[in-house]
Amino acid sequence: MASFTRTHGANAQAPKWEDYLEDEQPGATGSWLPLNALEEDAYMAGPNLHSMPATRRGPQTAQVKETARHPVRQPQSQQQVAPREWPALKVLQGKGVAVVAAAAICALALYAVVTAAIDWTQVKMDDIQYGRPRTTQVDAYVGHNEASGVPTHFIGMNLNRRVTVLELPGGDSAKATAIVGPYLFGEGEDLTPVQVSTQDLNADDKPDLIVTVKNEQLIYLNDGVTFKLITPEERAALEKTLSTQPGKVAQPVVPGATK
């Protein structure tokens, strides 16, 4: 066995590598290699480390970092305060909108029902008064074949939207004539009543024929033999005359009345 010398103290001497080799038994194995088995080129030089200069901090970078560490608090007046939402208030608002919408729908439905009821009632009353087709009858003395003393009979009709007036001079149907008026356009105009009346409008002692449809009047002037539709010039003169005589206006004659 190899003898080892002291490694500590004043007379210490470092051991030699051969002493370790002599102490090993022949055939001994191990996981170590002697240092002389390693070649110098087995060591690879690592990357050279270089020192990098420190980056200078600018005033803006230092200010940003300082702000990040110590955030500046804004005044209360500049901060945006989110409105506080109240669930109960939202529910009340939703109910209010629903109530208003329901009231509006009910009002529209009620208006539609009332309007339909009024129209239906008016139609039924006109059915009773004028029948279908809408018809009115008037007797009046107009000077046409009335030698026997029998008045002339007028029948005003809304015949399939066409305003038609039948004249029976002196009540004689054999001499009946027809006055064809305008055609009525629009929904439900086939049920519009046509009213007939007579009145001397141009002050010639000859009763003229007035056909009233809603708020419009058709004037037929009496020439002593028949009735002719008034011309625009005659209407302008008649309106001027009526403006100077306010009491002289066309008044409908009650059906069945005689003059």
Overview of the structural elements:
By secondary structure, the chain is of the alpha+beta class. It has a four-stranded antiparallel sheet with strand order 1-2-3-4, with no helix packed on it. The protein contains four helices and eight strands. The chain starts with 16 loop residues before the first helix and ends in a 15-residue tail after the last helix. 29% of the residues lie in helices and 19% in strands. The chain is elongated, with a radius of gyration of 61 Å. It has helices at 17-23, 59-69, 87-130, 232-244, and strands spanning 135-140, 152-159, 162-168, 177-183, 194-199, 208-213, 216-222, 227-229. The longest helix has 44 residues, at 87-130. Among the domains are: 90-130; 135-244, Beta Barrel (Lipocalin).
